[in-house]
From TrEMBL:
Signal peptide: none annotated. It comes from the Bacteria. This is TIGR03089 family protein. InterPro entries: ANL_N_sf (IPR042099), Rv3268 (IPR017523). Residues 216-237 are annotated as: Disordered.
Amino acid sequence: MDPTLTDLLLTPILGADPAGPRVTYYDDATGERIELSALTLANWAAKTANFLRDELGVAPGDAVRVDLPAHWQTAAVLLGAWWAGAHTVVGAADGTATTVALVTAAGLDDADESEVAALSLDPFGRPVPDLPIGVTDYATAVRVHGDAFTPSGTGPALAGRSAADVLGDARRRAADRSWDASSRVLSTAPWPDADAVVDGLVAVLAAGASLVQVSNADPAAQERRRTTEKVTASYPA
């Protein structure tokens, strides 16, 4: 069996530095700061993969749509979907026949997939209130699943491309920006589509680097953050 994109991304960084910061998330509008090690990120990805397979029926090769903002939980969802062997479609529906969607409450009206999970993205894990019947609350459901996962197959990983192709593209983009395992990348870029996900997330992980992802960035806080987080690169530059 070919390795999934998540295996290709996580195995090297788990071997090199499982406990160091891998994804640090800020929301300057709320003051939120969450930091995940590679091991914690892998645990969340495994919980998500188990949730997708065991509760939503995702099998290798199934198309799963992820319409979520740049966020640490989105990173876990994407890694979980790839680990489950899913073909991920990022953002709004693009004509691909997707069977499962993971969206925020704002995206529920446009989600006509047979299985829909909603994310509150709440830092304390609070559920989405007043969900329609038939919609699963991700925060409530995912926490009961195991934090280890063994994939059973893989299909196209992202936007119809194989895991190996996405990884090779991500490594080229990282090399063009001189990102490597010593890099600490501060990013304010959104993830509206597959290309942005490769740029802002996959390329960082493929380089073995760590990510500081900032939402609702306060320009006045950025210079101090570069110092406190030991940032070595910014994206967009």
